[in-house]
Amino acid sequence: MADYLRRSWAVVDLDRLSHNVRTLQAHLAPGCRMMGVVKADAYGHGDVYVARQLARLGVQWLGVSNIEEALSLRAHGIQLPILVLGMTPPEQAELLCGHDLTQTVHSLEYALLLEASAARSGVELDVHIKVDTGMSRLGFVAHGGAARDSVEQVSQACALPHLRAGGIFTHFAVADELGEASAAFTRGQFRAFMGALEALEARGLRFGLRHCCNSAGTINYPEMHLDMVRSGIALYGLDPSPDCAGRLALRPVMELYSTVTQVKLIQEGDTVSYGRCFTARRSTKIAAVAIGYADGYGRELSGKARVLVRGRFANVTGRVCMDQLLLDVTHIPGVEAGDVVTIVGRDGENSLSFDDMARLSGTINYEKVCLIGKRVPRVYRQGGGDVGVVDYVYQGL
């Protein structure tokens, strides 16, 4: 068994990750490649272990948010092509080239700055062009009245001698929503993207990799897969939205556990935790659990959420603290210090998910996995056993 402090920990199941990758690969259009998006520490799952597993499974590219994430992967021996999806300071052109990283170019102004830096350093940069088809985030605006100007600007960027544009992409805003208006908007984005490609091809510009599908697009719009898809949340077995639920047989990759640290009996009228927002109406058995908002278990879950102890649901009672939460375990016999508490996962016949947590928090599952704190070790499981652990706080444990 892997060595880690059994305070609070996350289990990342590499077999489930493999299942999800193969499920997505089987869903792809013929000849389509997959980019595994491992930004934000692989959505909280740990980018190094995830990236290594993706490479073993034949995923062709990785996507990250920034150059720091890319450099960390390179430092750990990850050799797959990496696309930096966000902005890198132009003066880092030599660093991008030296580590064989592909940079997103989102405007002509940025392209010119990268070109100048690359020229000064005597390097050529691999880039992918980002076009904005309605997300209104990064990208050359390629819809509406600005479409013609953007084609001219992309052409100018691709003509720069120190930039090699091997790919072009856009990002869908509502591919996870299947209502009539959202589906029409997604199709409109796709038409705008294909129109830009057609106009660029008329100028002699062709790109080896055209990609527009995020996880939701990959699941819901196979006709839009083109040369590559960018799979993120689906890799980790979580549905991009309720509209995507059940469309592919994905398996959640992460489970989250903690431990009971003390059990005590309080009396009628006693209050619990900060703010005294819970008052016992009878003699009540309270269990302290070693997880709190500094670990990613949000304070907004106070008095709303439940966890599993000895296979039974227990309500979170009073306010969640930085390092602890409190449970009412009056109805559960035999609870004692050292018992494992299932925050997300299955215990016996009952289970809890990140979707459950997200609903109570008024947010999405993406945010919940990304916010699991760095003092929560990630324990990697494969073939029924623990195969490694990442402890971000104490590497020598």
At the fourth CATH level, what is the homologous superfamily of the largest domain? Alanine racemase
Major sheet description:
8 strands, parallel, barrel
Strand order of the largest sheet: 2-3-4-5-6-8-9-10
Structure classification: alpha/beta
- Quaternary state reads single chain
> CATH class of the largest domain, please?
Alpha Beta
The CATH architecture of the largest domain = Alpha-Beta Barrel
Helix content: 25-40%
Which helices and strands appear, and what pairs or packs with what?
Layout: E1 8-13, H1 14-27, E2 33-37, H2 39-43, H3 47-56, E3 61-64, H4 67-75, E4 82-84, H5 93-98, E5 101-105, H6 108-121, E6 125-132, E7 140-141, H7 147-158, E8 163-169, H8 180-202, E9 209-213, H9 215-220, E10 228-231, E11 254-266, E12 271-272, E13 278-279, E14 284-289, E15 306-309, E16 312-316, E17 325-328, E18 340-347, E19 350-352, H10 354-361, H11 365-370, E20 378-382, E21 385-390
Helix pairs in contact: 7-8
